[in-house]
Amino acid sequence: MVTIIGGGIAGTLLAGALARANHPVTVYESQPAVGAGAFLALNDRAHTALARLGVEVDRLHATSHPLAELRAADRAGVVRGGAGAGRRMYLRADLMRALTEFAAATTAAIHYDTPVTELNGAGGALFSGGNPLPADDVVIAADGIDSLARRRLEPGRAAEYAGQIVVYGITDRPIQPSSEPSVLHFHRRLDDGGRPVSTFGHFWNSEVSLWFTRLTRAPLPVAEVGSQPIDRWAEPILFGNTAIPGLVEAMLAATSTVHVSNARTVPLADAWTPQAPVILCGDADHAITPAAGVGARDAIEDAAALAEAIIGGGSPAAAMAERRREILAERAKAAQMFRSAT
Q1: How far is CA 166 from the centre of its chain?
Q2: What is the pTM of this model?
């Protein structure tokens, strides 16, 4: 028996993959439903992992938008682009709907509005609503950046503020700015050291128009995180993106509400070695700032590695240890490329 804490991207995908292979699995999710949030991009690696676990590619295509290129303007106004096979843009709610349907078609038991309130890391005993849950062979903690499991297992490895807030907007109606469609455009304002002070990104096609901005500033109080009216944020967004006022104004004018969050990371370099019965995965283990653009892909690849280990009779702890090595190597390579580019 496998218990999963958290019914987000990693937890739902893992549950469906395990149950599809006739492994009994139960998910406990604290929220009444999962699917709110903004949008994200997935590349060919993420789609390969999803398809390998049995998620139908046609279903994914039906719920997403082709993403032809990532294109960023640097300090000198030079535009740099990067095409990539298999990239697609998703509203997070649509991706979660597809993953939930995938899991619901199996014998996976998913309990929403059921928070896990305590964890005994030594024995894997779980308590939800004050009631002890059945003992399990393994517990996968996919309970996000504020993971209860990580706080209990590794209290010194807390989420850290990454120096920027992120504001996500989805326009109330599709609009067509002068930029090229089906491209994720980035406009960055850098300091003298080449570090981003602010970034404005946008994507549009005939069906949807999306935008986000990252602003360097002090973190927001918890009460100011989440859904907010656009009026509260229009002025600081425009002030932080003065190089492209027309584009920003057009996007803001067509948007009524935004989703605001503090960009945070979970340090991974000094993490304890994964050890059964409780194993962290996804953002619970290695959340990264949205600026990296790979958090969802990492969660999907975690789920794939864990599913394949459990189904194949291997060690899920060893699978996550290997995933950590891969993630750290990729982050080091990305940091070196960023230093070279600036």
Answers
A1: 13
A2: 0.92
CB count within 10 Å of CB 70 equals 20
Q: Which helix (DSSP H) or strand (DSSP E) does residue 40 occupy?
A: strand 39-42
Question: Residues 268, 325: contact at Cβ < 8 Å?
Answer: no
Backbone angles phi, psi at 340, to 5 degrees: -70, -35
Kindly state the DSSP code that residue 231 receives in the 8-state scheme.
Answer: G
Nearest to 164 by CA among 92, 213, 205: 213
- Of 289, 320, 297, which is closest to residue 307 (Cα–Cα)? 320
Helix (H, G, I), strand (E, B) or coil at 204: strand
Residue type, 200: F
Q: Are 199 and 292 in contact (CB under 8 A)?
A: no
Do residues 316 and 138 lie in contact, with contact meaning Cβ atoms separated by under 8 Å? yes
Q: How far is CA 185 from the centre of its chain?
A: 19
Q: What is the DSSP letter of 320?
A: H
Q: Which of 156, 154, 157, 127 is nearest to 139 (CA)?
A: 127
Location of structure tokens 């439903």: 33
Half-sphere exposure of 319 (CA within 13 A, CB side): 22
Report the range of poorest mean pLDDT among 12-26, 118-132, 147-161. 118-132
For residue 3, give Cα distances in angstroms to 106, 118, 153: 15, 14, 17
Q: What DSSP character marks residue 86?
A: T
Tell me what pLDDT residue 82 has: 66
Contact indicator for 237, 167 with CB cutoff of 8 Å = yes
Strand residue runs (E) in 266-340: 278-280
Task: Mean pLDDT check: name the lowest of 3-7, 37-41, 116-120.
Answer: 116-120
